[in-house]
Amino acid sequence: MESTSRIVQALGPLDEEVKLRCTVDCVIFGYDQEDLKVLTIECNMEPFRGMPSLLGDFVAQDEDADSAAKRILKYCTGNDEIYLEEVKCFSKPDRHPFGRVITIAYYSLVSIPQTILTDAAGKHLNWRSVDEITCMAFDHKEILDTCLKQLRHSLREKPIGFNLLPKKFSLKQLQTLYEVVLDIELDKRNFRRKLRSLNILIDLEEQQREVNHRPAKLYKFDDKSFEKKRSNGLKFEI
Q1: Which of 206, 211, 171 is nearest to 190 (CA)?
Q2: Four-point Cα dihedral 191, 192, 194, 196, nearest 10
Q3: For the chain, does the N or the C end have fewer beta carbons within 10 angstroms?
Q4: Could you give the 3-state DSSP secondary structure of residue 21?
Q5: C-alpha–C-alpha distance, residues 177 and 152, integer Å
Q6: Are 56 and 201 in contact (CB under 8 A)?
Q7: Whether the Cβ atoms of residue 89 and residue 103 lie closer than 8 Å to each other
Q8: pLDDT, tens digit, 9 for 90 and up, residues 72-89
Q9: Which residue segments constitute the domains of the chain, with CATH numbers given?
């Protein structure tokens, strides 16, 4: 009964002396057809000055966390219609030099060749290879690693990888994407056999142009067909 009483009391009005802020941190993954990268900014806050940092901000009084994350994406890319997935809350008491700051981490996916950073943000931002980042400001390396793990898990169970490809792509480009993001080597025959079993690609009856190798056939993701099949129990597993 005593513990229940404390819980009930805790649900009363907030103590004005309690200083707690909420932020969102966005792990913006970008793919350039060869490498998986993350968008970073140089931290200007001690003791992390000069270290790479994720893109984040405080959640305003008049918005929810999702809206704050979309606001950051739009500030960076001019587009808030980007794949976005909430991952985890990070709440260690000493994670921020400002004091008690809890953050909600999201990751998003963009194709770097198809993404133009806004004038307001672009000059301050850098695409960095995920494999080359060893340390970051705050607990952002932990956040990055957690979101990367979630991305790899989701990539095998959802067709989110198509957000990183051109609208028209070859099967080799698709396989390379999975190999780069998952950091594995896939058997070509097994990969294509799995794609055929899913039957979610449209053969455009077109070939690549202006390439220095044998032109490959081009496809696009059939999202309408996938949604229909998914509602009927199709599982996306690669």
Answers
A1: 171
A2: 170
A3: N
A4: strand
A5: 11
A6: no
A7: yes
A8: 999 999 998 899 999 999
A9: 17-157 (3.90.79.10), 165-231 (1.10.10.10)
